[in-house]
Specification:
Largest sheet: 6 strands, antiparallel
Number of helices: 10
Order of helices and strands: EEEEHEEEHHEEEEHHHHHHH
Distance between the termini: 123 Å
Strand content: 15-25%
CATH class of the largest domain: Mainly Alpha
Radius of gyration: 34 Å
Strand order of the largest sheet: 1-2-3-4-6-5
Amino acid sequence: MMNTSKNPEFKIEVGTIISGKWHHHSYRVIKALGYGATGYVYLAESDQGLVALKISSDSMAITSEVNVLRHFSKVQGCLGPSLLDVDDWIRPGNSKAIPFYVMEYLKGTNLLKFIENNGDEWLGVLMLQLLADLDRLHNEGWVFGDLKPDNLLVVGPPSRIRWLDVGGTTIQGRSIKEYTEFFDRGYWGLGSRRAEPSYDLFAVAMIMINAGGYPTRFSKRSETSQHLPQLTRAIQSKPILKRFEKVIISALQGRYKTAIEMRVDLIKVIGSQNERPQQDRVNNQTNPANHYRYQQKTARVNTATNGKNRANNYRAVKKNSKWKGFIETALIAVFLILAYVLYLAGQIL
């Protein structure tokens, strides 16, 4: 769950028009999308179409998030939503300026819902995408911080994971600004809340646990200082998580220093699963995408085989025709010779 906002004054009613003081763009509130420690996010209608608008009384938080989004726009790849507008709103009856910013509205499916609807085989694929994005973020000197399924959306086609809320993004070396207990290594006694790549990678492991069999999550069972045994049992009790056990536990223990290290190990696990011929045959029958590719491959093989057979048949027919033509020519020649011989005999007689 997202952290509860302490600013109930910003629970804006549907239909409210928010007009910017400086840029004079107007936005009509359609519904609330979420809320966090720094404010509310609303779906709004504008001249540019549907947008996501975040509003908060914490001007420093808004400024920080805007800077992050601006920085993301310079990083190769689609890390977060595009920043569209930054302004202040003068609420009717209140002279105090309320800061807000407007982002691209990403329409898609929540990560957990997407995996539930499309199958567990998507878990590894989407985590590979997420790790590639995190590597770019970490190389720029940032840590996502409050990484969880609530802040991840799957858009497409083609299916692609995107980030939603950048409010917890922190410069490396500082203390994490926002976190959610289930995905926080400090909560599980498995590390500090210092902003470093391994903090995000711990959260990736917990996202896999959340998506791989525990959609409602769970709490630590005791107040002991370390809870790895509980998490290990949770992993081993779910078939999909058991496949990735080595990778998940390594991330929980902080063994990975970079997202690429974790990604390489995840690729190895997925690759080793794909090397089983019998399983591949089963997948070709049960997975629509694999079945389609299997059909296409079979069609290409059949086409090539049929083409080869046709070529062989043609050569055989051509060869037979050659001999048939030769015999026919020889018979005609013999017939003509006999006819000429008879003609000469008649002349003599």
